[in-house]
Design goal:
Structural class: alpha/beta
Number of helices: 15
CATH architecture of the largest domain: 3-Layer(aba) Sandwich
CATH class of the largest domain: Alpha Beta
Low-confidence stretches: none
Mean pLDDT: 94
Protein name: Mannosylfructose-phosphate synthase
Shape: globular
Pfam family, one: Glycos_transf_1
Largest sheet: 8 strands, mixed
Helix content: 25-40%
Order of helices and strands: EHEEEHHEHEHHEHEHHEHEEHEHEEHHH
Number of domains: 2
GO molecular function: glycosyltransferase activity
Number of strands: 14
Distance between the termini: 23 Å
């Protein structure tokens, strides 16, 4: 049976990486004819077939209209919004929403007008299409926002008419029969949120964690032993890492909280140059860190997993100060490389980092608590930090390794095909 994995992007962002990893897993099972469909092209049998330039141009024109609407109507610019009132004609052509071919459609992150709410509604009603819907954020049970505001219960109680666009999008979602699909989430936090939401509370929901390739993301002893020389820093340097798509530009990634915490840490030590901060995800160094006085090394945009694994091996600790994470891909990859993690004790990151075992979890979203945890790692011996890293890798292999995730994924595919599956 065909398994069509749908994603806005083939490569950009954690959700695209997760979708591509699902393709990797499904392609290893001879029962499935797996392919990945995106706005920019299709991957089939390991070969990329690009969509036409005209198709991409037309799609981005639709996206622009949606973004103009959200920009002028919605107030909080720190949150991403999606309307999904348009479709990518290219994606729609390859899904064939209303035809009778029996196949599994695995929907991943399909915002940026990849598939409209109107087409999703039709797709979910087609009994020949067996649907797995993977949530990579909260958009499917919120209105137009991708994450609910901290302590907001609108996704549980519903949206009033004070914001027309949110009310309209939520009403469109209420007309979709989500009970016809199998929903998966990458973390227990997202599972709990989805189960208490207005839209998805009665749905069939399973935890399908993101797969981490622990053969690529692993300890590289040669790199780790030469890291001071590679980075050209003193051997007593304490090396911390921060990385995200677009670097610190996305407020949800909490870079502002990290800068404030580092400012607090650095104000209490004499040798600021001993602290080395390695950043990745953006081409330019964020101006907010240049005044801190520590050594900043920016690695730019990293698109290769092997290069990413090398960066994790440079570090004493990876800091993931996100305000919210549906999973925490960077944290899991770092731990797989035996580099411990500091994060906040909130959202999907709690499935990955165990406090005082594989890292330290600060009080959400306390700068003082984050600074205290950075100080704690600074004061540890290298051997003590290494124990944290070893524990982290053991946990990642056990919970997110290929054998574990592929078994869950294959059972879910067979379940939507009609075979029995137990939670």
């Amino acid at each position: 049976m065909k398994v069509k994995i749908i994603s806005y992007s083939l490569s950009k962002g954690g959700a695209a990486k997760a979708a591509k990893n699902f393709l990797h897993l499904a392609s290893k099972n001879k029962k499935y004819e797996a392919e990945m469909i995106s706005v920019s092209g299709i991957i089939k049998n390991g070969v990329l077939f690009k969509s036409s330039k005209l198709s991409v141009f037309w799609h981005y024109s639709k996206m622009l209209v949606s973004r103009v609407l959200t920009y002028f109507i919605l107030n909080d610019k720190s949150i991403k919004y999606s309307l999904n009132i348009f479709d990518s004609n290219y994606v729609l052509k390859h899904i064939r929403v209303e035809d009778g071919q029996r196949e599994v459609i695995h929907i991943n992150w399909v915002n940026n007008d990849t598939i409209s709410l109107f087409s999703l509604s039709k797709l979910f009603e087609n009994k020949r299409k067996r649907i797995i819907l993977t949530l990579h954020d909260e958009w499917f049970y919120c209105a137009s926002e991708h994450y609910a505001k901290y302590n907001s219960l609108c996704y549980v109680t519903g949206y009033d008419d004070s914001n027309f666009i949110n009310s309209y999008i939520f009403e469109l979602k209420k007309r979709i029969n989500f009970e016809n699909v199998v929903i998966t989430v990458p973390s227990y936090w997202l599972y709990e949120r989805a189960k208490k939401s207005y839209l998805l509370s009665n749905c069939d929901i399973y935890i399908l964690p993101n797969y981490i390739d622990t053969n690529i993301f692993t300890e590289l002893k040669d790199i780790r032993s030469k890291r001071y020389r590679i980075l050209d820093v003193p051997e007593d340097a304490f090396i911390i890492g921060f990385g995200a798509v677009s670097g610190g530009a996305n407020p949800l990634k909490g870079f502002d909280l990290l800068v404030s915490a580092l400012d607090e840490v650095l104000s209490k030590i004499n040798d600021k140059a001993r602290i080395v901060m390695v950043t990745f995800g953006a081409n330019d160094i964020d101006k907010r860190v240049t005044s801190l006085g520590c050594h900043i090394i920016n690695m730019g945009v990293i698109s290769n997993s092997h290069n990413m694994a090398e960066i994790y091996n440079y570090l004493d600790v990876m800091i993931v100060p996100s305000r919210v994470e549906s999973f925490g891909q960077v944290a899991a990859e770092s731990l797989a490389c035996k580099t411990p993690v500091i994060a906040f004790d909130y959202s999907g990151i709690k499935d990955i980092v165990t406090h005082q075992r594989s890292g330290l979890l600060a009080e959400p979203f306390s700068v003082d608590s984050l600074a205290l945890n950075i100080n704690s790692f600074m004061n540890m011996t290298e051997k003590e930090r290494y124990v944290y890293g070893e524990n982290g890798r053991d946990d990642v292999v056990r919970k997110f390794g290929e054998t574990v995730v592929s078994e869950i994924y294959f059972k879910l595919i067979d379940y939507v095909r009609g075979d029995e599956y137990e939670k």
